[in-house]
Amino acid sequence: MTDILVVRRATNADAERIADAERRYIDCAWTAEQVESEIANENALFLVAECDGAFAGYLSGVFAADECEISNIAVETDYRRCGIATKLFGELLRIAAERGTESVFLLVRDGNAAAVALYSSLGFETVGRRRAYYGEADAVIMRKCI
């Protein structure tokens, strides 16, 4: 894999790289300006993963009351299946626990077996569905209690 993996809070200097990843991997991509706004939001969290100094991916979430909802996650193609997503989630869950968060939610496109397997391996359980959330595809709602 890599020699050095760093997971850290995103800064405005990361906004364009995150927005670029959003455009390539996320259906409703955020702009760099939207990313910067969320980085400044005390109730939001953007984490960046770097492998040997290169941008490898990011994870974002929003905190409200005692919950956190994952907004987006993307791992660059060259870094997939290297544990990047697991490290990103580990850091988010650590921060969530420090904040007194009781549960973390996420939505995943129905049929995305690789993502569901990852989230299940991290302790997330299916708790519901949102019909036609992704156009014609349903979203599976998953939750992890902390």
List keywords for this structure.
146 residues, alpha+beta, seven-stranded mixed sheet, 4 helices
Ends apart, CA distance between termini = 29 Å
Please tell me what the overall shape is: globular
Side by side, the strands of the main sheet go: 1-2-3-4-5-7-6
Instruction: Report Rg.
Output: 15 Å
Which range does the strand content fall in? 35-45%
Order of helices and strands: EHHEEEHEHEE
Q: What count of helical segments does DSSP give?
A: 4
Unreliable sequence segments = none
Q: What portion of residues is helical?
A: 25-40%
Report the mean per-residue pLDDT as an integer.
95
Q: List how many beta strands DSSP finds.
A: 7
**Helix-strand makeup class:** alpha+beta
User: Major β-sheet, in short?
Assistant: 7 strands, mixed
Model description:
This protein is an alpha+beta fold. 30% of the residues lie in helices and 40% in strands. It has four helices and seven strands, in the order βααβββαβαββ. It has helices at residues 15-25, 32-40, 84-98, 113-121, and strands spanning 5-9, 44-51, 54-64, 67-75, 103-109, 125-134, 137-145. Helix 1 crosses helix 2 (32-40). The radius of gyration is 15 Å and the shape is globular. The mean pLDDT is 95.
Please outline the helices and strands.
Elements (H helix, E strand, L loop, with lengths): L4 E5 L5 H11 L6 H9 L3 E8 L2 E11 L2 E9 L8 H15 L4 E7 L3 H9 L3 E10 L2 E9 L1
Parallel strand pairs: 4-5
Antiparallel strand pairs: 1-2, 2-3, 3-4, 5-7, 6-7
Helix pairs in contact: 1-2
In short:
This protein is of the alpha+beta class. 30% of the residues lie in helices and 40% in strands.
